[in-house]
Write the structure tokens for this entry.
Amino acid sequence: DAKTTQPTSMDCAEGRAANLPCNHSTISGNEYVYWYRQIHSQGPQYIIHGLKNNETNEMASLIITEDRKSSTLILPHATLRDTAVYYCIVRVYNQGGKLIFGQGTELSVKP
Amino acid sequence: GAVVSQHPSWVICKSGTSVKIECRSLDFQATTMFWYRQFPKQSLMLMATSNEGSKATYEQGVEKDKFLINHASLTLSTLTVTSAHPEDSSFYICSARDRGGGNQPQHFGDGTRLSIL
């Protein structure tokens, strides 16, 4: 399985952009990168995913490096409600779509 | 957006009881659903992949006779924790992926908190 490495924790000031990095140096050419977040005591919430192009939706932007060995999730204007654990996951190709969660990054947005 | 409903949200049972947890995809059909378990301050651990109309695929170390999975329709998978004991107390979370497959993301339920006394 392509593993991911994320910082254990990060802080961000409210209203500023939160940039969450993820390393996935062993990713294969057809494996997608997915980002989820989990707010305490809830199920994970899907944020965004991508293969090699940068992606943007109403929640966030995903920047994937040209060699695909790393990516950055960007929350453009973080709010207190964005405080959560953020998981970067590489979905293994041809294994039924299962996701293997790492430890994630605990993002604290502070006033 | 895609909604996955899990029921019950929390349950407290006596040791030795069997507990059933339901996972429903409300606005899409899912040939595949997944069951996870999460202990406090830990990440989600995949327990099994639930396939509609066939047997579930369990991850290494997960007892299939302890955690019975049934995926009888395209919108419903159930997890039964048989003869539950205090060490089975955990947060159980399901997810589902649209039958369209491809790179579509999984969507998660809000979890079931199981406490065995």
Q: What stands out?
A: Residues 4 and 25 of chain B are 5 Å apart (CA to CA). The radius of gyration of chain B is 13 Å. The mean pLDDT of chain B is 93. Chain B touches chain A through 26 residues (CB under 8 Å).
